Amino acid sequence: MVWWIFALVVIIIYASLVSHWFDVSTSRTHSIDSLLKRKMEFGVTQSSSTSFLLESAKREDLQRIWWKIQKSGNDKAFHDSISQGIRQVQESGGRYAFISEETHLNLALQEDCSLSTLGGIDMRSFGVAVQKGVISYKYREAHFLN
């Protein structure tokens, strides 16, 4: 009897973790899609792991971001440093998103409260920096305050 209860508890915990994983990945894709629908421009650090991730992406939304980056040209999309990309976000009026490693973006977020991040664009640690207000409060509350 005890083994059946133990097995039932393990199955319930597993099912809740798996369902949460699917919810989070669906929401992130939806938010990236909403950024793409806003006709935003995107940028990365030149010759970085982020640009390699997007260049070799198999997901359609990430491929569309890479296409938009290539289409916009070197001066707007490819930056020599992360600070240049963050500065572009600050000066864009909400029309530019910079994609980089989440660690760097979180550091920039601590220094500048006018930024917001959309974390985890894939299962690794990449994120998107945008001006505050571009990402809906409902999304941030659901995924970053829990």
Describe this structure in a few short sentences:
The chain has 146 residues and is α/β, with parallel strands linked by helices. Helix content is 60%, strand content 16%. The protein has one domain: Periplasmic binding protein-like II (D-Maltodextrin-Binding Protein, domain 2), CATH 3.40.190.10.
Keywords:
single chain; 146 residues; alpha/beta; D-Maltodextrin-Binding Protein, domain 2; five-stranded mixed beta sheet; 5 strands; 16% strand; elongated
Task: Outline the secondary-structure elements.
Layout: H1 2-37, E1 41-45, H2 49-55, H3 60-72, H4 74-77, E2 78-79, H5 82-91, E3 96-101, H6 102-111, E4 115-119, E5 126-131, H7 137-144
Parallel strand pairs: 1-2, 1-3
Antiparallel strand pairs: 3-5, 4-5
Helix pairs in contact: 1-3
Report the total helices: 7
Task: Using the alpha-carbon principal axes, give the shape.
Answer: elongated
In the residues, how many domains can be counted?
Answer: 1
Unreliable residue stretches: 23-30, 137-146
| Share of β-strand residues | 15-25%
CATH class: Alpha Beta
CATH architecture, by name, is 3-Layer(aba) Sandwich
Largest sheet: 5 strands, mixed
Q: How are the strands ordered across the major sheet?
A: 2-1-3-5-4
What is the CA-atom radius of gyration, in angstroms?
Answer: 18 Å
Provide the CATH superfamily: Periplasmic binding protein-like II
| Strands, count | 5
> What is the name of the CATH topology?
D-Maltodextrin-Binding Protein, domain 2
Structural class: alpha/beta
Percent of residues in helical segments?
55-70%
Residue-averaged pLDDT: 76
